[in-house]
Amino acid sequence: MAAEEQEGFVFGGSPWKDVEGPSLYSSLNVPSYASGEDVRSAYRRMCITFHPDKHNNAPDKEQARVLFENIKQAYDVLSNPEKRFVYDTHGWRGLRAEKSVGQSGSTPCCTALEVEELRSRFNRQLCEERNRIQCSPSCNVAMAVNAKPLLLQSSDKRKGSPPYFTIQKLAMSQAFKFGLTARDTLRCQVALQTTKTGKTFGSVVGTYRHVFKSGSCVQGSVGLGSMHHAELEYHMLLPGDFHFSVHGTLRHVYGDFNRMAFSIIPTASATIGRRIGPCSVQMRYSSEDPLTDKPECLTTTISCNSTAASFELRSGGPPVLKLLHPIQLAPSAVLEPKASLSAESVRLSYALRYGLNDHTDISLGVYVKLPGAVGCFLAVSYQNQDFEVPIELADSLSPTALFYAHFLPLVTAGIMRYCVVKPLTYLVSREQRAEDRQRQQTATSVKRNEAAMFVRLMGATYDNSVASEQARGGLIVQDAWYGVLVSHRLPGSSTVRDADIEVADVQVATQCLVKDSKLIINSESKSSLPGFYDPAPGLRKSLRVRYEFRSRVHEVTVADNEPLQAPRQSHLVR
C-alpha cells in the first residue's frame, strides 16, 4: 500500500485510490485530441521548468522533484496508446484497475476486473444501506377526525354552541428492527390505540424471523398487552414461481372484551399462490374467528401491480375489486385515483402525492363512500415516519362537503410547507452549506499552496520568457485573473478590470505558457494547469488576460472550458 501511494499523484490525493483526479491533459496543457508529438513537446517544455536538475536550492529541488513526478506520470499515461485509451474511456477508475491488475502479474485488461470490482462494492454498499434502513426505527401515527359538526347544523341540545370536531380514533406505533445475522432479524413494536368511547388498547410485540438458504422463512411473534397473543408463520417457495404459507394464532382473551369470558382462541390460515410477471393469483383458507365474527371461508385473489396501473379482485366471501391508476403530473407530483367496489359499498378517492424533497412526501386526498360519507385525508411521510389524518366531513354527497374536502387539505398543506417544512429545510441546508464551505476552503487552501509551489519554481522560466518577448516585441502578460469575475472600475484608474472575491492571480503561470509570441490554452478546465488552482469550487469561472503585443494593449475573457489563442486582432483595446 505504501508503494502504491508513493507512485500516485499528489494533486488532492492519489488517483489510484480516488475515483476522480486532475485532468492529465490540463497538466500538460494539451488538448484531448493532441498527437503523440504534441504530448512529447509539451512534456519537454515542462521539463525545462520543473526538472529537479534545473534548481540548485535544496527546498526548491525537493518541491520540483514532487511536482515533476506528477508531470512524468501524466506523460507516461498520455504517451502510451493503451493507457491513454483506458483513461479516455474509463477515467481514473480504469487507470486504477489497470494498475492493480498489472501489479498482480495478470494480463493488463482491466475491463472485466473493474466491472466485477464495482459490482461487488455496489452490492456491499447496497446491503449495508438496506440494513441501515431496516434497523432504523419506524413510526406510524393515524388520527381519525369527525368534522361533521363544522358543516352540519347542531342538534337542539347544542343550538347556539360554537362548531366543534371530535377525534374518533388515535393509533400510534413505534417499531425497531435489529439485524442479528445476515439471515436473522428481530423486530420490536409498541402500539397504542384509543377510541371515541375513551377505551385504550396497547400492546408490545416481539417478532423473530429466520431466512433459509432456499429463500423460505419462518417467523414467530409474541404480543403482550390488552390481548396476549402468539403467532407462527412459515413461507415456502415452490418451483414454477409458486409460494405457500401457513399462519397460526393463539389469542388470550380476558375481562369483558367483545362480551367474551376468559378464553384462548386459536385461528389458522393457509395460502398458496403463483406469481406471473407483475400479476399474482392466490387462494387463502381462513378458519372461523369468533372475535371478529368472521366465518370460515376460502377466498381467491387476483392482483396485478405495475408502474402504469394496478388492480385486485377478491372473491369467495365478500367480493372486492380495487383499481389504482397513478398519473405522473410532474417529476415530484403524482395523481393517484383509486376505486374500491364491494357488495356493501363503493369508495372513490384520488390523492395528489407531492415530494417536498428526497425524504419527505405529502399526500392530499378526497374520498367519497357510497352509501356513507364524504371526507378528505392528509398524509405525511418522512423516511420511515408516517402520519395520516382522515377527516370525515358529511354523511352524504353535497357541494359544501366536496368544497371543504378540497379546501382543508390545501390549507393544511400550505401551512405545513411554509411554516414547518421550509424553515426546517432552510436550517438543514444552511448547516450543510456551512460544512461544504469549510471543506471547500480547506481543499482550496491546499490547492493554493500547490499553485504557489509551481509559481516559485517558474521564476527563472518567467524571467527568460519576459526577456525574450521584450527583445522581439512579442507577447507579455500584464495581468491574468482566474475565478468568478465581476466588472467594475477601479478607483483612480481609467481602465476596467474584472475582479471578485474569488479570484486567483495567474499572471506568472500564464506568461510561462507563452511560446514564440503565442499563448495557447486548450479547452480543458484551467484549474489543472501548472500554477493555477480552483478558487471557487462549484461556481462558473472565467479567465481574464490583459497582455501587450507589439507595444499595444490587448484584453480577452474566456470561460473555463473555452480555448484561448492569443494574440488576436479582436483582443485589441481601442
Overall geometry comes to elongated
Rg, alpha carbons: 36 Å
Could you tell me the mean pLDDT?
A: 78
Biggest sheet features: 17 strands, mixed, barrel
Detailed description of the structure:
The chain is α+β, with helices and mostly antiparallel strands. Among the domains are: 124 residues, DnaJ domain (Helix Hairpins, Orthogonal Bundle); 124 residues, no CATH class; 114 residues, no CATH class. 31% of the residues lie in helices and 38% in strands. It is built from 10 helices and 27 strands. The chain has a 17-stranded mixed barrel. A hairpin with a 4-residue loop joins strand 10 and strand 11. Helix 3 packs antiparallel against helix 4, helix 4 crosses helix 5 and helix 4 packs across helix 8. The longest helix is centred in the C-terminal third of the chain and has 59 residues. It is elongated and about 105 Å long.
What descriptive keywords fit this protein?
574 residues; 27 strands; four-stranded antiparallel sheet
How would you sum up this structure in a few lines?
With 574 residues, the chain is of the alpha+beta class. It has 10 helices and 27 strands. Residues 1-19, 101-111, 256-260 and 488-500 have low confidence and may be disordered.
Q: How is the secondary structure organized here?
A:
Elements: H1 2-7, H2 24-28, H3 36-50, H4 58-79, H5 81-103, H6 111-135, E1 138-146, H7 148-151, E2 166-179, E3 184-195, E4 200-211, E5 217-225, E6 228-238, E7 242-253, E8 263-276, E9 279-286, E10 297-305, E11 310-315, E12 320-324, E13 327-330, E14 333-342, E15 346-355, E16 360-370, E17 374-382, E18 385-394, H8 399-457, H9 459-472, E19 475-483, E20 486-489, E21 496-499, E22 503-505, H10 507-511, E23 514-515, E24 518-521, E25 542-549, E26 552-559, E27 564-566
